[in-house]
Amino acid sequence: MSRRNHHVAVLVLEGAKPLDVGIPAQVFSSRPSMPYEVRVCGAAPGPVTGGDGLSYHVAEGLEALAHADTVFIPGYREPATTHPPAAVVGALKAAHARGARLAAISTGAFALAATGLLDGKRATTHWHYTKVLAERHPQVRVDENVLFVDEGDVLTSAGAASGIDLCLHLVRRDHGVALSNHVARRLVAAPYRSGGQAQYVPRSVPEPLGDLFASTREWALGHLSEPLTIETLARNARVSARTFSRRFVEDTGYTPMQWVLRARVDLARELLERTDLGVEQIAGRVGLGTGANLRLHFQRILGTSPTEYRHTFSA
Predict the structure, then answer these.
(1) Angle in degrees, 0-180, between the axes of helices 256-274 and 230-237, rounded to the nearest 10
(2) pLDDT for 228-280, tens place per residue?
(3) Which of 75, 151, 159, 160 is deepest in the core (most CB within 10 A)?
(4) With contact defined as beta carbons under 8 Å apart, do 85 and 93 qualify?
(5) 179, 122, 181: which is closest to 154 by C-alpha?
(6) What does each C-alpha distance from 115 to 87, 90, 109, 119 come to in angstroms?
(7) pTM of the predicted model, to two decimals?
(8) How many degrees, rounded to 5, is the angle at CA 110 between CA 108 and CA 112?
């Protein structure tokens, strides 16, 4: 990315859901700590009827998309029975052709799919509308069981809360884990949820283990330099290893050991960004043992080396 601020446009369509609009506007809000600038626009300047009893007044129309590096399309009401205006579809296609990335929250995926840019790609939307999206746009590979999908220059997410996950994912992709964690702390949000985590896991009998598992994950983050096994984590959560493994995947989208490995790599990323420690020292601090092991997992998970990552993201 260039040194200028990254321009984000939030496109408010008729029936836009307030939370879906507010999430990217707040995550990428213009402030000294953020290398982003946000503009909220509509199909035309002026009033826009929203959903849930709220309306909007936007100062700009579709011309705002011509200057955007990222365009967010928040979810809107009645996506199964309405179609986005042709001018909106055309503006989105033009922005993408110019190099902007397009990101949809919830039912905003319907407007994005109308451009044809999701054809042949994976996408998701709110679980209530996944079947409708697949029927209306059969060339889109709809995945109903994930929080968000990153296809590079087109991204989609499920319901409103997963919009936060998608936004933090983009901050992390743009500027590294330190800034993403900073934003998560400001929002009082989970710093990282896997895009592959299930949207909705129905259970016939409630299992009140969520708080225990959250506490165990927090405990593990403070002990990453130590040997961690499924048995160790399950013992901390006071459940059997089998129950822990099953529920952990449901809660996070990862097996316990996959989660631990990614937590170690994320800690290594932050140390690379914020300190001058060598790769061997960082490997020891995050529980990966050797620099060679750190390099191996860095390449597998991030597709780059620790040295290149530091060069790209260090302050």
Answers:
(1) 100
(2) 999 999 999 999 999 999 988 877 778 999 999 999 999 999 899 889 999 99
(3) 75
(4) no
(5) 122
(6) 11, 7, 10, 9
(7) 0.74
(8) 75
